[in-house]
Amino acid sequence: MTGKIPTSRDPVCGMDIAIADSRYSMTHRGLVFHFCCGQCLERFTRHPALYTRAQRTADIRPIAKKHKLQFVAPDAEALRGAGDRLLAMMGVTVARAADDHLLVEYDLWQASLEQIEAVAEASGLRLKGGLHGWRRAWWRFAEGNELDNMADTGSGACCNRPPARLR
Ligand SMILES: [Zn+2]
Fold it and tell me: What is the dotted CATH code of the domain comprising 64-151?
């Protein structure tokens, strides 16, 4: 007789996590959530309201992002290594090395530019500053806004705020 292993769905990527083996979890408003990896836990920690909305399901459309990341004097080996590490991240679908840059495509539900930059730098690459640094800061800012706005749409016409009475 085989018992069903109790699982919990990772609210970020939709994977089923065996609760007994869970290494990443957190309590939010009295409920315990389990995650497949530190990256998903971090996404959740930043925007819990977004990932706990009733509409959130695993088959939700991805928020596709595409950026070209430039580096200071990267060698080809380091670029390829970083590309491999990025592809191992949740939500990253493309990480292609070319000349002095990486072309990355990812789903903002599961990965943020900030997380991608951290993995690239942990691989020994140094991100370009200057105009590119400014652009990256803007992209990060816009991503944060986009997610905040998505979280808000769930609470527009809301039952905890009674409608204004007309008379
Ligand atoms: Zn996950």
Answer: 3.30.70.100
